[in-house]
Design goal:
Largest sheet: 9 strands, mixed
Number of strands: 18
Shape: globular
Bound molecules: xanthosine-5'-monophosphate
Number of helices: 15
Distance between the termini: 46 Å
Structural class: alpha/beta
Helix content: 25-40%
Strand content: 15-25%
Mean pLDDT: 90
Length: about 525
């Protein structure tokens, strides 16, 4: 099976906090795009043969020393360009226009008036009168347009809020179409992609799967692949995709570290065997992990111990399988963007790579931990260009069960970072019981799907209580539930009081050794989502 050439758009990243959001919006519009640093070499762009470019915003000022500039190839390509905020200023500056500091920063909602409602960017809107709500966030602004450009929209503060040279397909927006505060922003991006760049769309989970199966087969050939399975959505989708592509050449390794939630090890194994019928090696290493964690209270020390243990066990199991050539992992696009990990080498034309190749490079934050230098695998990372919501859509299209696909994220070090202080089997069991009650009640009330992550934490303090006629001195459970899109910032979930009351009541009654439950009402920042 050969991968179809796919249409793509390139987003050049000039450092805006919204750059990833632009990429997500474009993907939501079913057009494949990649977010590429503005200074990236041209080869990075050529491999995509883009139909157009979007220039992101950014914190710089075009005249500032060291400010990132528009690479020559963008305008030389004669492809359509949409500059957003700083991207618009760059476009104007490079084409001979003038950019000046605004008298004051413009930040927040604004209303713009369309001067050219028939322009392709706006022609699909049906706005009466011809005004749009937009989100502004800029200091500098374009004060003189380059030749060939005209103003397409203006506001009292931004005389050139949208500009364009329709003959050349060059456009600039002073505002941010990618944020939800610009309600028509997505329609505007759609117009640019479909009307101006001539995209046809079709970047759908089904097409991704078809394309990716071919790529995996081409990369792996007859080689053997191992995949660390955690039960989370990323590793499950990776495994399912691999299994569909190469069947029995895949072996999954699931390490039960004793730090998983109630019934989780059984569920992972069961779901996996029922759904995929793939080779699965399940290892119970509970004792091993718990003895290594005995007496350890420092969170980073816990993470390190767990990471190293995992590596050793994974390595031993993988060696037992004989010659293994590839390691599959569920690296996602945000990991790639944030850690700027270079893409793996191009797949060989045919046949499987045998050993050698590049040493596995794995983020320590990732569930898989890190692997020793002397283990030489080539990486297979079928999800490395996907966002989390796309991974979920692929999971659903692959027929994975909903609870697996929509599971909240769970940290690699597991409950060890939710049992604050020393990790013992008894304390883990207390936490597991409390956590299971929280999750059960969230599911029953429909709140599980309305929170991005929710869990219980066992605090390292005891507090006084009274039960019947007895004074108690027992454990405290903290409940944490957050809403967030990206996990970089988060807000505490406004769970209904009666739901919290039910959870609290059940925990103190059903979990031995707990007499108090508190609810965490901190946002991130300044707090983090996990407590350790
Ligand atoms: P924080 O606590 O940093 O968490 O706000 C953000 C997201 O990352 C997860 N997290 C981890 N995931 N290994 C992981 O695989 C870790 O050590 C780790 N620490 C935090 C956390 O659950 C949340 O989703």
């Amino acid at each position: 099976m050969s991968a179809k050439p796919r249409e793509a758009v390139v987003i050049l990243d000039f450092g805006s906090q919204y750059s990833q959001l632009i990429a997500r919006r474009v993907r939501e519009l079913e057009v494949y795009c990649e977010l590429i640093p503005a200074q990236a070499p041209i080869e990075e762009i050529r491999r995509l043969n883009p139909l157009g470019y979007i220039l992101s915003g950014g914190p710089a000022s075009v005249y500032a020393p060291g400010a990132p500039h528009l690479p020559d190839f963008v305008l030389k390509s004669q492809k359509p360009v949409l500059g957003i905020c700083y991207g618009m200023q760059l476009l104007a500056y490079h084409l001979g226009g003038q950019v000046d500091p605004g008298s004051e920063r413009e930040y927040g909602p604004a209303e713009i008036e369309l001067s050219d409602p028939d322009n392709p960017l706006f022609s699909t809107f049906n706005v009466q009168p011809a005004t749009l709500q937009v989100w502004m966030s800029h200091g500098d602004r374009v004060t003189r347009l380059p030749d060939g450009f005209r103003t397409l929209a203006h506001s009292p503060n931004s005389p050139h809020a949208a500009v364009g040279d329709p003959e050349r397909g060059l456009y600039g927006l002073q505002f941010h179409p990618e944020v939800t505060h610009t309600p028509q922003g997505k329609a505007l991006l759609r117009a640019f992609l479909y009307e101006v760049c001539g995209c046809h769309g079709g970047w759908t989970p089904g097409n991704f799967i078809e394309e990716s199966l071919g790529q995996i087969q081409a990369q792996v050939g007859a080689g053997k692949v191992v995949c660390g399975l955690s039960g989370g959505v990323d590793s499950s989708v990776t495994a399912a995709l691999l299994h569909r592509a190469i069947g029995d050449q895949l072996t999954c390794i699931f390490v039960n570290n004793g730090l998983l939630r109630q019934n989780e090890p059984e569920q992972v194994v069961q779901t996996f065997q029922q759904q995929m019928h793939a080779h699965l090696v399940a290892v119970d290493a509970t004792e091993d992990f718990l003895s290594a964690l005995a007496g350890i209270t420092d969170p980073e020390a816990k993470r390190k111990i767990i990471g190293e243990k995992f590596v050793r066990i994974f390595e031993a199991e993988a060696r037992r399988l004989g010659q293994v050539d590839f390691l599959a992992q569920g690296t996602l696009y945000p990991d790639v963007i944030e850690s700027a990990v270079p893409p793996p080498p191009s797949p060989p034309a045919s046949g499987g790579g045998k050993g050698g190749g590049l040493a596995a490079k794995i983020k320590t934050h990732h569930n898989v931990g890190g692997l020793p230098e002397d283990m030489q695998f080539q990486l297979v990372e079928p999800l490395r260009y996907l966002f989390k919501d796309e991974v979920r859509a692929v999971g659903e299209a692959l027929g994975l069960p909903r609870p697996m696909v929509w599971r909240h994220p769970f940290p690699g070090p597991g409950l060890a970072v939710r049992v604050l202080g020393e990790v013992t089997w008894e304390r883990l069991e207390t936490l597991r019981a409390a956590d299971a009650i929280l999750i059960e009640e969230l599911r029953a009330s429909g709140w599980y799907d309305r929170t991005a992550q929710a869990f219980a934490v066992l605090l390292p303090v005891q507090s006084v209580g009274v039960m019947g006629d007895f004074r108690t001195y027992a454990d405290v459970i903290a409940l944490r539930a957050v809403t967030t899109d990206d996990f970089m910032t988060a807000d505490w979930a406004r769970l209904p009081a009666d739901l919290l009351a039910r959870v609290s009541n059940r925990i103190v009654n059903e979990v031995p050794g707990v007499n108090r439950v508190v609810y965490d009402i901190s946002s991130k920042p300044p707090a983090t989502i996990e407590w350790e």
